[in-house]
Amino acid sequence: MSTHATEPMLEVQRLRKVYGSGPTAVEAIGNLDFSIGKNELVCIVGPSGAGKTTFLRCVSGLLAPTSGEVVLEGRAVTEPPEGMAVVLQDYGRSLYPWLTVHDNVELPLKAKGTSRAERTRLVADALEAVGLAAAHKKYPWQLSGGMQQRVAIARAIAYQPHVLVMDEPFAAVDAQTRADLEDLVRRLWKQLGVTVLFVTHDIDESVYLGQRVIVLSHAPTFVLEDVAIDLPADRDQLSTRALPEFAVLRTRVYELIQRAKHTNYRTHGQATAP
Ligand SMILES: Nc1ncnc2c1ncn2[C@@H]1O[C@H](COP(=O)(O)OP(=O)(O)O)[C@@H](O)[C@H]1O
Ligand SMILES: [Mg+2]
Hints:
By secondary structure, the protein is of the alpha/beta class.
């Protein structure tokens, strides 16, 4: 169980989502109820098909919940919120192939009404932060998968969101790039003071990145446990992952997910995991 002293940024209140109706209905979210403090970096981990993407679509206002609600900075989310940026798993489809890297990153700022001078500065800073300053005139199809995903991240941070939401953003990149991008997320989180909600199915990644790891059951999903990650704030791919505490935490999360395969929401409801 984790507590946080800061004011809540995102409150998820008795959220439930059923797709369709009748005999073919799919209950994706059983009941989710938790809150995330301002400036927290929270990972959500759960098996494939758990309902993670469904949850993020509710959080980002793209999908209406069946019941319950998501409250962002005190206001119920009913449409894509102004202060939120979302990075999806499928970066291939999230960038516009006919726009340069620069123009892809700039587009949401234009939509937001940011002045030209401010846009130029924000785009340059964001591309610098993800190490792509030199690629600003290139087109997405001229870049590797990892670089395209960094463009998507640059676009999200240039937007200066209060909340950055990421759905398995590194699932399709190679291991070395993935490690670099993980460190980039931690660095940006510290620099920008943004609240980060990071969804992954990778247990090690969730422990390495998060201050908290919220472990979800399979669908219809509920919170199995909210695990506090009390690792040092300065993390390093080699030394942090080699810590005995890291091994204890990853084992804990692994066991929860294994046990979840035999745990049913109907019988256990919101009960905390054993
Ligand atoms: N548009 C949809 N219509 C019907 N069922 C869906 C839809 N999207 C997802 N589902 C189902 O909801 C469950 C959760 O899916 P999803 O949220 O994508 O899980 P995850 O992201 O954790 O892999 C799965 O059983 C999936 O098949
Ligand atoms: Mg998903």
